[in-house]
Every structure is written in C-alpha cells, then in structure tokens.
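Record 1 of the preview.
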Amino acid sequence: MWLFLAFLLVPLIEIGLFIQVGGAIGLWPTLLIVVLTAVAGTALVRSQGALALARLRSSFETLHDPTEPLAHGAMILFSGALLLTPGFFTDAVGFALLVPAVRNIVLRELRKRVQVRGMSMGGHRPGQPPHPRDEVIDVSYTVEDVDEPPRNGPSGWTRH
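->
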C-alpha cells in the first residue's frame, strides 16, 4: 500500500512543483535547474560513494560490522537515483540523503523497524566442515645448544 501511494503521490508533487517553479521563473530556467541538479548530484554521489566504499573496505579489513557502511552506501546509491530523476521533490530528498547526519537519522529509524538475526564474517564455524582453504601446517624443529653458533642464519632455526 505504501509503495502504491509513493508511486501516486511523488509524480503529483513533482508536477505541482514544476508548475509553480516554472510559473515563477519560466520554462528555460526551470529546465536548467533540473539539469544542473542532476550534474551536481552525480558529482556528489561519486565522491560520497567513494568514501562509503573506503569505509566498507576498512570494516572488512578490520573485521568490524559492515552494516553501517553498507547502509550508508545503499542510501547514497538511492540518492543518486533520486537526483537523476527529474524533479524538485526527488532532488530535495536525494540531496538530503547525501548529508551524513540525515543518513544517520534514517539508519537509526530503520534499526527500530528491522531486526538482524545473525551475521557472519566468514571463518570456520563449529558444527560445519572446515573451509577448503583452511590448511594445517606441519612443522618440525630441533633444539640446539645455546652455546653453539646458529647453523642456518641468525635466528638459529634449521630446516628439515
């Protein structure tokens, strides 16, 4: 039902805004504003998306929860779609989603409505067979007298 209302109301709002703005400043300035917001929005989405991707990579490298960077990336992607859609209302929502504080508010509200039941960062889990890349390294060593000089280099380790 909500999706139906969005598809009904958003075009009506956009048409009304086009009529109001076009009547106030004229056709060509109105069309110029629509094109400029699309160009500016594309540049902003590109830079914000690169930052979000860097944060996502960092969360994977440090084995932290990637939920927040993923959510921010999804909202940036959605804002890009809104900014490429001609219209003043969609541009306003798209530009708002490019502001990190607004995305944090949206994320906080989404967390109230969505429950995450589990997350896995990879690796071996009990009760499951090991991953094919899990390897056992067999090592042998020899204990040497500390008074003797090392046989194979400064560390004193020997290979067998």
